[in-house]
Design goal:
Blueprint lengths: L1 H21 L6 H11 L6 E6 L2 E8 L2 H14 L6 E8 L10 H11 L6 E6 L2 E8 L1 H12 L5 E9 L1
Parallel strand pairs: 2-3, 5-6
Antiparallel strand pairs: 1-2, 4-5
Helix pairs in contact: 2-3
Length: about 160
Amino acid sequence: MNLKKFLSVAMVSAVLLSGTVACKSKISDADLKTKVETAIQSNPNVQVDVKEGVVTLNGTAASEEEKIKMEDAAKAADAKGVKSVVNNIVVNVPQIEVNTNTDDLTAKVNEFTKDFPTVKTTVAEGVITVTGELEQARVQALKMGLDALNPKKVDMSGLKVK
């Protein structure tokens, strides 16, 4: 009978011991941070913070695609250690340079508005002022074309729409 008890205790101990050996210990936040930083090192503008397995990314990226790529890299750095990723990366939108050169802008406006003979324009300090008459169907095309010249403003308040 003692042999049966001993074997039972030995088997239970072996199962418990193998179960604890098989469980991998939890990775520390510091080690996880190092892994994530290595994974996203292609963008030095992104900082990493880790707390209890939750990775937070802060910084800037050149595009939405790059932002997503950084998040995916952070998740893949340690799939078991990363519980979730908080992506606070801001995408830098390129600034459009405003054209305030009156002579240059006037030349471009005159060239563009050749196809709109019922419209008159003036340019002053980067502001295009539109007057005259135009069919409703063509107003959007006019506005988009003038906006594409990068003026400070397009003032269409003097335009009569038919």
